[in-house]
Amino acid sequence: MITFDGVTKRYADGTVAVDRLSLEAPTGEITVFVGPSGCGKTTSLRMINRMIDPSEGRVLLDGVDVTTIDPPALRRGIGYVIQQAGLFPHRKIVDNVATVPHLLGWNRKKARDRAMELLERVGLDLGLAERYPFQLSGGQQQRVGVARALAADPPVLLMDEPFSAVDPVVRTSLQEELLRLQAELNKTIVFVTHDIDEAVKLGDRVAVLRVGGHLAQLDDPATLLSRPADDFVREFLGRDRGIRRLSFVPGQEVRLRTDLTAPASAEVAGLRAAAGPWLAVLDEDGRPLGWVKVADLPASGTLADVRPAPYGTFVRGRDSLRAALDATLLSPSGCAIAVDDAGRAEGVVTREALNEALDRVAGGAHA
Ligand SMILES: Nc1ncnc2c1ncn2[C@@H]1O[C@H](COP(=O)(O)OP(=O)(O)OP(=O)(O)O)[C@@H](O)[C@H]1O
């Protein structure tokens, strides 16, 4: 566990970058520092590995004041990833990653084997291992940066805006890779970002800082989004806070209707009095084929004769209500079809059901 105990950092020119910061980053969790430019995120992070020492207060690593530990010894247990990956330009990718194990006294073969294993783990094509950093894309370089930080298997990982210089698609895949890795590795991670979406996606806990280095709020993402501590945090979370909150409500929370589906074999004559203006048509295995509008049905025949409109689905056992809402927006009916892992329809989610689920889960979704 990393503990900030009343930490203040005053630079030589008098700037107070961090002001009496007290918080804990629990072992095995991702703690995110988020806030506007200049709020002291980087300064706080660097006080953990002693690139900067506090002016007042203490930073403790598992109860030990880090200023009592020699920086090189301290940093052996702390991986560090920065924005532009910071790779050694004249070393091949594999050697970039093997450097730390090599410094720790591993022989060359063992260090390289470890490097290759890590490169694979972070999802890098191993064909790139013999290249130099400039021959890699920004996203690939970031993967190497993460592999290098993990090389000595440190219990703590500090990440300073590691994904902010890559495009949004690559950033999403790097974030997912990090979450996948963390599920296996359980490192104590402190992650700095100015992107609130990234913060709530990655953080087990999110610390929102305001300029002057004050901690405005520290909470898990769902609580942060539903109960911002003050106007600054509310403003920082942005207008689409409601949409983001949906990501933290499991799909199982939503009520399903089974009276709005019909098999393709159904006779249209029997469907005139359907429960809703639209019906989800299912094949013989129960998989959705699309939507039909009851008012537009022909006079006779079965639903198999009607061309269904495209549909939106979400996997109820796995997805959040955000996916469910997205699916409703993509459906002509304004409803989503909930499916199981095998793609079979479990029922239909209406907008009313979405609202109900939100109200129930968050104690007032429209607050
Ligand atoms: N060496 C320094 N000397 C004086 N002031 C500094 C120094 N380093 C940082 N600062 C100031 O301390 C404050 C906090 O800086 P810091 O880099 O920690 O913020 P940050 O939240 O990481 O910002 P960003 O998101 O822009 O990187 C800023 O006002 C910055 O100008």
From TrEMBL:
The keyword Flavoprotein does not apply. Transmembrane segments: none annotated. InterPro entries: AAA+_ATPase, ABC_transporter-like_ATP-bd, ABC_transporter-like_CS, CBS_dom_sf, P-loop_NTPase. PROSITE patterns: ABC_TRANSPORTER_1, ABC_TRANSPORTER_2. One of its GO terms (molecular function) is ATP binding. Pfam families: ABC_tran. Residues 2-237 form the ABC transporter domain. Keywords: ATP-binding, Nucleotide-binding, Transport. Belongs to the ABC transporter superfamily. PANTHER family: OSMOPROTECTANT IMPORT ATP-BINDING PROTEIN OSMV (PTHR43117:SF4). This is ABC transporter ATP-binding protein. It comes from Streptosporangium jomthongense.
